[in-house]
Amino acid sequence: MSAHTVSAALLAFCRSLPKIELHAHLNGSVRESTLQELAGEQLKLGGAKTLPECFKLFDAIHRCTTIHERIQRIAREAAEDFAADNVVYLELRTSPKVHLEHGVTKRSYVDAVLAGLAEYQAACSAVGQTGATVRLLLSIDRREDAAAALATVELAAELMPRGVAGIDLSGNPAAGELATWLPALRRARSLGLALTLHAAEVFNPGETAAMLDFAPERLGHMCCLDARLEAQLAASRIPIELCLTSNLLSGSVTRLPDHHFAALHRAGHPVCLCTDDCGIYGTSLSRELALAGACFDLSPAALARLCRDAAGYAFLPADERAALQAREAARAA
Ligand code: 6MZ
Question: With a cut of 0.85, is the ipTM above it?
Fold first, then answer.
């Protein structure tokens, strides 16, 4: 469901662009058909959901997906689906979960995700294709305490050689306090993990100012700012992951034409368009680009530039990021 339609031609153009997805939650990107198979008729995706409704839905999704074989399957399918949408570089994020009734520990959960991604890569190699490059970010859930957050960070550091590239802070913005996770976030930084924080999905000026002061490599959302925070953000030049459909359907913005993408893009602030939860919100990265094109009157060249610029914000070592940027530039030429 969406109040906005985009033309088939614009959508086709956006599909043809090689894209970079930097903000996608694994369990939010679950295929509707897979969820229906796993959960039966009890769970329905699609439609507008307030943030609290959205987090209730996540709890229900987690109850049926947090089993090793299922999480492996969902990870493989997510990589397949983004690649089918012509995403060439994907950063997928997920919070490592403990479900002892199914023998799931944070470590075994992430192993299952990595096994799903390896399965995707193997299937590509088997048909002589390179496939999308996929990196994993581990999320700290705002319901977690300091020790659980630190455990996620230590796990991420250990798994860097297997494709874990950074740490995200996400979850219900009404839960918890930044001070709880700061020691873990500082530890992540000292271990060389890149950081992205969900910020200002709801109005919380003290926390948002502290997050900006902390200066993560990227920020997600940044919807609810006052003039002072806008100035602090502008001065920071921190790249922002923007998710149009998610913000609209969850009510963080009221109308797409008023989305802060417009002002940030106009001001030349570094931004990238992302899906957030393409399964829950029934979207794709191509569709998000097409929506931006239609709502903010962006030319095809401007849309292509958005994709290319996103390569510069990837959580990759400088040489790999430069190679990704060079590939994007060569494709555009
Ligand atoms: C904040 C969100 C989110 O980690 O189980 N998540 N956190 N704001 C949002 N905006 C809509 N969408 C998803 O994926 C689902 C988890 O990602 C976070 C929530 O913690 C959610 O439980 P994983 O793979």
Answer: yes
